[in-house]
Write a structure and sequence with these properties.
About 40% of the residues lie in helices and about 15% in strands. The chain has ten helices and eleven strands.
Amino acid sequence: MTATVIDGKAFAANVRGQVAEHVTRLKEEHGITPGLAVVLVGEDPASQVYVRNKGKQTVEVGMNSIEHKLDASTTQDELLAVIESLNADPSVHGILCQLPVPDHIDGDTIINAIDPAKDVDGFHISNVGLLGTGQKAMVPCTPLGCLMMLREHHGSLSGLNAVVIGRSNIVGKPMANLLLGDSCTVTIAHSRTADLPGVVKQADIVVAAVGRPQMVPGDWIKPGATVIDVGINRIEKPEGGTRLVGDVDYDSCADVAGAITPVPGGVGPMTIACLLANTVTACCRANGLAEPVGLTA
């Protein structure tokens, strides 16, 4: 069996196209332009690249991009003041503070200072609680992207057995809640799970989000299962240099699975696409308008 490759780049391009259509409609019919504000503290190179890509894609879909780049010496109170000003700004519909923040700033305090209605990362404790209890929430971008791809591939997810490997607040736990919301039978597996290979082998859907390169081999995968690989790990190549791999061993898993996401080019492109989708959703909710169909959980 050779797995169908789930093309995250193409899927993300389609999502961005849908977002751009909704933005055009908001402008033409309601005179509203969604605005996304990104706050970056310090000069972490990876964060700078990520923020630059977010800003570029925000503008490309027709939204307003607002960036606050602050020195690494910025105090927590100064950062909170920036967040408060964005909370109060009606032209800003989405706010995110790029993580990690410097050590002298408490990340949870900053996340929970963001207006939950503008928390397009879906990390605020209020949104976590709403998602966990099956209510309308802002959903974390990476799990939302995974859910969109699973729905596209399977249609209905009802009754499928899903195993989420990893229990992080950013991916593992919200992913499990989203799958429960689509009527999957869900197991959250982790480093202490007894007989992890046997647990994974029962799954129709495997979502790997542990941050361990090529941890999941093909002989863990049920024939025909769908494998969503959230991991992005850099490993050394035998001939020198490095390459990116996921949390699953792609070659062996692709021989068994029915469908699989590659790394790179799978889940990764969906994260920013879903951030843009969340911003449009937040804008519609703020203005009492119908939410965009197909771009929410």
